[in-house]
Amino acid sequence: MPVTVLLVDDEPLVRAGLRAVLQAQSDIEVVGEAADGAAVIPLVRRLRPDVVAMDVRMPLMDGIEATRALLRTVDEPPKILVVTTFENDEYVYRALRAGADGFLLKRARPAEIVHAVRLVAEGESLLFPASVRRLAAEYGDGEGGGNRAARAALERARLTEREGEVLRLMARGLSNAEIAARLVVGTETVKSHVSAVLAKLGARDRTQAVIAAYESGFVTPG
């Protein structure tokens, strides 16, 4: 089954460019388009896409609020890939904190766009880990030891030593297979650890878990 994608951007040329790139792939299908975040929820309910590629800045409802609304109101929501002009942008970090799974630069090359959609759909790796580290360093609420609320939440999670090790490797952008090789365990074992980390942190996906790790000071950006 192909990865199905909904495109949300107020610029028709951007949507057309993304559609052309993605539709050229045999394993990806663009199932719909919208010009504003306000149209996302009804389209997602009707089309059930795997991934929403959503502009972070739109006139009526921006990508941040649309992400919050989507995750709050839709059962089994799709993965959300924020589309942005600037990677070191507080809007991007706010969208990731709101629940987006990753971000895509509008100037990205076609191969990078395709890779981003596939990676976010699979959910087993962190998209652009170095950029997430930079965003956490610049816009995260903590300095050095992390912010108090995030630190308390991580303490309540009571991660085991191995789960903490897995979270640190996730924060470095390693995939499940790479973590398995590093720890000399099976991939299924790593998947179990990742699932446990997400459940204990109350994180929707590994992007949210990694942000929590940075903001709590458990992992330091840099």
UniProtKB/TrEMBL annotation:
Q: Which SUPFAM superfamilies does the UniProt entry name for this protein?
A: C-terminal effector domain of the bipartite response regulators, CheY-like
GO MF, any single term? DNA binding
Note whether Lyase occurs among the keywords: no
Domain named Response regulatory is located at 4-121
GO biological process, any: regulation of DNA-templated transcription
Q: Which Pfam families match?
A: GerE, Response_reg
Q: Which residues form the HTH luxR-type domain?
A: 152-217
**Keywords assigned by UniProt, alphabetized:** DNA-binding, Phosphoprotein, Transcription, Transcription regulation
List the protein's name. Answer: DNA-binding response regulator
Q: Which species is this record about? A: Streptomyces actuosus
Q: Lineage of the source organism?
A: Bacteria, Bacillati, Actinomycetota, Actinomycetes, Kitasatosporales
